[in-house]
Every structure is written in C-alpha cells, then in structure tokens.
Amino acid sequence: MPSLARLQRIVQDASAAASLDEILRILSTQVKEVMALDVCSIYLMDADSQELVLMCTQGLDPASVGRIRMPLGDGLVGLVGAREQLLNIEDAPSHPNFHYFPEAHEDEYHAFLGAPIVHYRQLVGVLVGQQRDARRFDGEDEAFMVTIAAHLAGILSHAINSGKVSNLLQSHTSSHTFVNGAIGSTGVGIGKIVVPGGSLSFRQVDELCALDKASELVSFEHAVTGVRNELEAGRAQMEETPGDVKAIFDAYRLILDGADLQNAVRSRIEGGLVAPAALKQAIEELASIFEAMEDPYFRARGEDIRNIGLRLLRFLIEPETVVTNYSEPCILVGEVVSVSDIANIPQERLAGIVCQQGSALSHTAILASALGVPAVMGVGELPLRLLKGQQAIIDGYQGRVHFRPSKALLAEFRRLQRQEQEFDRSLDKLRDLPAETIDGRRLSLLVNTGLLSDITPGLQKGAEGVGLYRTEIPFMVHETFPTEEEQYQVYRKVLGAFHPRPVTMRTLDIGGDKPLPYFPVSEANPYLGWRGIRFTLDHPEIFLGQLRAMLRASVGMDNLRILLPMVSSVGEVDSFLQLLDKAIGSLREDGLEVLKPQVGVMIEVPSTMYLLDFLAWRLDFVSIGTNDLTQYLLAVDRNNEQVASLFSRLHPSVIRALNQVMIQAREHGLEVCLCGELAADPAAVLLLVGMGVDSLSMNAYSLPRVKHVIRSVERAQVEGLLMNALRMSDEREIRDMLNRFLEKSGLGGLIRSGRS
Ligand code: PEP
Ligand code: MG
C-alpha cells in the first residue's frame, strides 16, 4: 500500500494545481504510478446529461477523452456511479455490465477497480484503475482508492465550480451561469463585482530587478497616494458612526504614513528591486517583527501591516481595477468579507455580499441582514481575478449568485427588485401600528443592532426598542479594548437615540467566531470554550469597565436592560449580580444617580433551559438566542459550511425546546424575548406567536414584514399550526405546512427557501 506521505503529496500537488485539467493529470499520473496500474482514468459527472464522461486517462487511447460517456447504471463505471460503491472485478470483460468501447481498446484490461468520488452526498465522478492481468485488487489497494477519492472530492468539486465560472467568463459565446450557497441575508441585488483587498497575494510577486528605478519609485508614490485616498474616503463614509469604525482607518493611516514602511520599500527599490518585490520584502520583514512579539496587541499589528501591504500591491499591480469611487452598485465578493470591508463602501452602493466561506450565521451575514443587504455565504472557490468588474445578480432568497446574466434575466430580477421595494413601501403604513394579531394578541417588535449606523433604520421601521445590542461589535472594530469613556460615548448615543424605548445591551460576547484582533485566543473548540460571560467573569476589570459605562450612559434616561450571553450555570448569574452591585455602588459613591437596570440572560446553551426554576427569581427577563441554541442542540457549528445543510432552524427539536422554554417561563411569570435570526423568518414567526413569546428582536429590514405576518393572523390559527408542528418529526414537513399557510393567507411573497 502506498505510504501516507505519498497520499498526502498527491493531495497537496492536486490542491496546488492551477486548473481542473492539471488536477486530473496530476491525479491520474500519480495514482497510476503509486499503484503500479496499467491504466488510471477519471470520469466526471455531467450534471445536465446525467452521464459520466471520461475526462482524463493515463493508459487508454487519449482520443477517447470526452467521447466515452456512460449514463448512470450503464457499464462498469456507470455501475460504480449508480451504486456509489467501490467495485473490484477480477475480469472486467466477462462482467454482465461491461460495455465495450472500441475506441478505448479496453478489452485488453482485465482487473478493474473503480471508486466513486462523492462530495456532500453528490456524485462528482469515478476514479478507475485497470490492469492487464486478471486479478482481484487486494484490500490495501481498495483502501487507497477509497481514501484518495474521498480526499479529492472537495478539490475536484471546487475546481469544477470555479472552472465553470472561469470558462464562462473567458468565452464569448456561453450564456449565464450561477453558483449556490447558503442564504446569509434575503433580498435581491444587482451590481458590479468588487473583490475587497483584491485577489492578489504576495505569493504572486516575483523578485525582479528594476530596469528604471525612478519609475518604480513613482509607482510606489502613486500607490501610497491611492491607498491614502482610499482610507480617507472610507473614513469619511463612516462620519456618522462612532469612533469605533473610524479608528480602523486611523490606525491604517498611521502605518501607511509611518517612516518605517515607506523607507523600507524605497531603500529596496534603490537597491535594484521592482516596486512590488520591494514592497513584498518590506512587508514581510516589518510584519514578522510584530508577529514574533509576545504581546497579543503587538502581534495583531502584523496583520494590519499585511493588510496595508496588500492594498498597496493592488495599486501597484492592478491600478486600473482599483475602485476608489463607488459610482455604481457593488457586490462584494471574497473568501471572507470583513466588517471593515463592508464599512469601506457607501451603504447606498452596497448591493450584496458573497463569501466563498462562512455560513448563514456568521457575523458577516448578520451584519448584512442588519444593513438590509442580500448575502450568499459558503459558495466555494470562485475565480476572483476574473470576476472582478463583472456584473452579477445576487438572489438572497434562493442563496444563488448569477454571473453574466442574460438581458431577460436581468430584466426579471429588476422587476423583482422593484416589486420588493414597492412591497416594502406599502408596509411603511404599518410603522406606527401595533404588532398584534387580528384578535388582539400583542407583541413587541424590537431591533438587533451593533453599529450606530443601523440605529436609523430601526427607528424608521417603527422598532419599539432594541432587543439585542451586540456590544462586541464596537469592541471588534477597535484597536485595543475600548476605555470606559469610549464605551460610555457609544452607549449613550444608542440609549439616547431610542429613549424612552428600552435598549437591551448584551455584555461582551467575544470568543467563538468573534475574536478580538488585539486579543487572540487559540482554542481547539472555540464555540465550547472561553466565550461570552466565561471570558468577562474571568476579566472583572474589563467587565466592570463595561458595566460602569452602560450604567453611566443610562443616567437620566433609565432605559437600559442588561443581557448576559453564554450563561450555562446559576453561579455565573450570581457572580454577575455581585459585580453589578459593585459597579452601581462605585458609581453612587462618585455621586451618580444610577438605577439598577433590569437583568436577563440569553437562553442559548441548552443547560440554561433546565435552570429556569432557579434563575426565574433572579431575573427580569430571558432572551432566546436561537442561533447558538440551535448550534448547541443539534451539534452543528453555525459557521461550518460543510454541515450548513444540517443547521435547520425549524428542526423539530428546536421547536420543542422553544415551546418548553415558553411553558416554563409562563409558569414563572418571566418575560420572553427571542433575538436569534429565527425571529426574522416569517414562517417561524407563526409558530413563535402561537407559543406566546412577548417580543421578537430582529434586523430592522425584516421588521415590517414580520409585523405584516402578525397582523394577518388569528391566535387560534397560529396555535393550531404550533400543535401540528409539535407532532411532526421532520423540518421539511414543518416548513411545508407553514409555507402552505402563508400562501393561503396571501403572504406567499414572504416565503423563504428552506436552506438557512
Ligand atoms: C444567538 O445566539 O441567537 C444570538 C442572538 O447571539 P449571536 O448571534 O450574537 O451569538
Ligand atoms: Mg449567541
């Protein structure tokens, strides 16, 4: 059996290949060699014709590539595909399924070993090994084929996906194509693709000698000016926001204009290098000095230097594609799209966000929903360099991105967009009406926020307060832990903007997928690790600073409610209450008239559901965080695209758990809010109203739609739907029932696809 090291090398070589053809060639040649085969061939599935097509062969007649096509179930290869099982045959020509293709001269080969290549339950192709002699391949050969096929499934499927888009963009004849991902935020967007930070990497830069030093220096100066303008434009966009987002731009400016970086590049150009190579060396040297430091704050500066380096490189290598002036709607596409990438674009120009990685519940997706921008997550590998500047349509309802759309498709999506806008406008009249069912069951509709820039939409859409203010967002877009005073300024604005409506501020919930750039924590299982209240209780100095800032900000307005994230035991609540008393005591000593705010916990760790008897008298309210509760109940990482299809928001266990929390909370007279993404899903809202939740908190853009649903139903109807849902064992069944109801009630336009 070939060694593990050899297997790893094949996988590494295939992953590093630049095209699908190269992957197939590397794979077939190396597998043939290590297994001492006479033939190694790869067939790929043609999704349109449902046939397996010979794409590459080492051993059969090369002329048969592309010609041999086998429907599933036909021939030995078709049998492997149909059964999705390994097939090991001693004498292929005598097998009843053997299909003779004269052009391939296959009858010379007797031993046959075929392994299906399957990615996320989809057949991608079949890997085949053949030998002249009639013999059964041994168990080790079988194991190797199965292992290599499993390793290569992801690489091949990404290459096919990416290749499909690349071929399309390079050819002038083909029609449009699309890729699918998870719905990050609903809506339709049409715009030009912008790849934030560029698709460039320093790996692409060769260390060439400069022919003309003076002109290299001039290009570097232009690049510095270009990046400086870009940073200024970005900062100006954020004029309305507090210091937190603007601080990122200031920090980048300091690095850009600091003597260290510019001198290091200039001296290398003087020494004879072209500007990109000089920049590469300078960035590497400076960043690695910071990255070697003990202090996490300084280590994180290395990342900023690399970020500035890439921005400069983009101006040096691709000046013509650098977008500094967002004059038309843009769709941001990248491996990941960060909060600062989003902040860098004027909001009225942001038409959509597409991430190669990440899932519906990543914070990028949550931010997109908060801004009312469609987002599709986890679409897999895309040819970013080719996509830049192309027009695309993002369909946030289906989780689909269309490239090179035809005129007809564009017209159709434009129509849909207009219809959406008209529908939303028609809902404006609901702004000041209560969210109550036809027969008078009243709920409060609140908004989730984290950036000051989304306060206005919340107020415009008629939110009755803030149900979840994610304080980690101002912490994440900061340079260091913000001071008590800096936090006070931000919190005061939020409380003031919504006053007299209540504002529920959640204490710092970092960890999991929300690391702080200046405080990296390395954990094998971050979601089960040092997150939320676990972190803040271990750092009372940070926690007290935050509590004092919140309490001070509320003085005179008294509309603050405090919410604790990631609570999993009663002791955590008691420790918090002691700290809260301490913070109140110290502020009163300072002469401030601080009132004790209402306190609640997030129900997002399953253990808390079973502690309500103990927690009820300690608390004023609870808020159900379905994003995490679903993740922990179903053991499905909310950010892992490999298991995204298992993250079902309407899973029967989730529905039953929510119902149980509601029953217990009612027994204790405890107020219940729900602030996870489920609150924005119209189908789910039917069940939540049926359960009797007191308030729902969501992104501002979903609020009018949710209100429309609530105002269109009667209590008995939604209670009936809940009873039925509680008897169903399958999420699809539940969603279909709810969608049928929405359709029947004239709310069909609000139906979302089942993919979360
Ligand atoms: C949740 O877990 O449902 C929630 C609202 O919090 P976050 O998404 O910020 O973890
Ligand atoms: Mg949570």
What does this structure look like?
The protein has 756 residues and is α/β, with parallel strands linked by helices. Among the domains are: 4-173, 2-Layer Sandwich (Beta-Lactamase), CATH 3.30.450.40; 200-321, PtsI, HPr-binding domain (Enzyme I, Chain A, domain 2, Orthogonal Bundle), CATH 1.10.274. The protein has 27 helices and 23 strands. The strands form 3 sheets. Strands 7-14-13-9-10-11-12-8 form an 8-stranded mixed beta sheet, sandwiched between helices. Helix 10 links the parallel strand 10 and strand 11 (350-355). Helix 5 (213-237) packs antiparallel against helix 7, helix 24 crosses helix 25 (703-711) and helix 24 (682-691) crosses helix 27. It is globular and about 90 Å long.
In short:
This protein is an alpha/beta fold. Helix content is 46%, strand content 16%.
Which word captures the global form? globular
Question: Which ions and ligands are bound to the chains?
Answer: phosphoenolpyruvate, magnesium ion
Radius of gyration: 29 Å
Q: Main sheet?
A: 8 strands, mixed
What is the CATH third-level topology name of the domain at 4-173? Beta-Lactamase
